[in-house]
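Sat 14:20. Reprocessing the chain from the morning session after the first attempt stalled halfway. Input below, unchanged.
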Amino acid sequence: MTGKSESRMRAGAHASSVGAALLIAACLGIEVAQAQAIMRTPTISVPSRTPTISSSMTPRVAPTVSARAVSVDRGPRTIATLPHITTSRIPPTTTVLPYARYSPNLYPACSAPYRDADGECLAQPNAGGGGSAKSGQKSAGKGRGNATPAAASLRSFANEFVAEIDGTLSPGDADELARRHGLRRISSENFPLIGATFGLFRIADGRPYETVRREFAADGSVRSVQPNFRYVLQDQKSVAPSEGDPAQYALAKLRLPQAHTLVHGANVTIAVIDSGIDARHPELTDSVADNFDALGSAEGPHIHGTGIAGAIVAHARLMGSAPQARLIAIRAFGGANGGAESSSYIILRSLNYAAEHGAQIVNMSFAGPKDAVIERAIAATAARGLVLIAAAGNAGAKSPPLYPAANPNVIAVSATDQQDRLFTASNRGNYIAVAAPGVDIFLPAPDGKYQMTSGTSFSAAYVSGVAALLLERNYALKPEALRVTLTKTARDLGSPGRDELFGDGQPDAFAAVMAVPATSATPVAAASGTTKREDAGKRGDEPSSRAIEQPSLSSSDDKSTVSQADRPATR
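Finished this time. Tokens:
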């Protein structure tokens, strides 16, 4: 009996102590849920200039570049510790970098029953209005049918045409041409890249699209007419953030630190056709050599374009694949509510500017349908010797080929994660050349911030930087030789040999650089006669300006073609 009384007394004392502790906690405003939230909150801490190969490694950027790295924090942000709580799992003070996230912007996708014979999206069935779901399925199954207007709204801008017109027409004549057909001329200009004059026209009188198109195409002053197709950037929000610095894994995967002991992309010019770039971000200081706004807009920097630029040339706390490359920032994507899209006419204007202003590489981290005008522009750009690199697209396994990546003149890049698995949303196809990291990538964002993001956009940007390393190594390397070097030195992923998921595999920047014979000459723009750079005139006088027809690689059927002598020793 006495033992039971003592047990009750001890239990009562314990309950009293617990109650007192809870009362004190309530008075101090301590909530258990808040503590759990703090424990779960991911912190992103990026060591300055990581990773480092060895103490003897040459600087990755020139002295003038290293001096321009500045702090991007406006002051340390700290998480206050809870009073009277001691735990080894919660550090007393945690400094984090600015952090930004954004929503996905994907190319329109649809299920198999709503694709036409070419694999393009048709209209989805509409439960309301003038038809039922059943009738929508029937028209989709028969091909384009009545679904064409709705399909056009997904793939192109409603009631707009891109037309090649007689180059001798003055702006007034072009306006009169438009009025005769119930159209309004939005813009028109000559494009030296393809030697033609194109105009953007919009239906002004409400007549049916197809009727106006037929009448306009039949006019003697009109050479061709097509829809003004829609293009979107290829990025996607990460499913869940993870702790630490998951973006820097791309450097090791591509063996960029080793490659940076030899080259950094110096004197190589990359045109980035994208949304607005924040050139004032510390990661991008002094990297943007030229700006062109193909939209003629007044929008500020955008998160996608800033991230793409960072994947290529970041050189402060992060490291891009070509930190000394020069960028031509071409704004071709814009829109309200933070979104960004472009059109056939604007992409044509952007490619023309890149080719006419000395770009050697063009990064295109966007996707759209097959487009006759853009196909023509890409063929002309490739003929000038520019290297064209594009995102494969984020429309998934069942998507038809997206463009410009599927164009044979373009190096198409799919995306992988830290475990070398294919990004779920990445497009597949026999046009994929290589696959590069593109999942949970840590990159700059406007206003000195950073972002965690995923998408084939950023995979393409990393590969554009690797291409710049090869051109610095040998400025005379031609686009096809550069493509062969990238693919034949790539590390095989997935099933043995080339496949539709990873192409020839993951680029190995160091092996690719080692496979290219080095020259001491300064790289110049590929478009002879169109660049405004001062060193362009010296090209013909330099004795070492011979073209490299093919890098020193073995059979094109063998993916392991770099000789053992050229392979670096295991570190």
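The chain has 15 helices and 15 strands.
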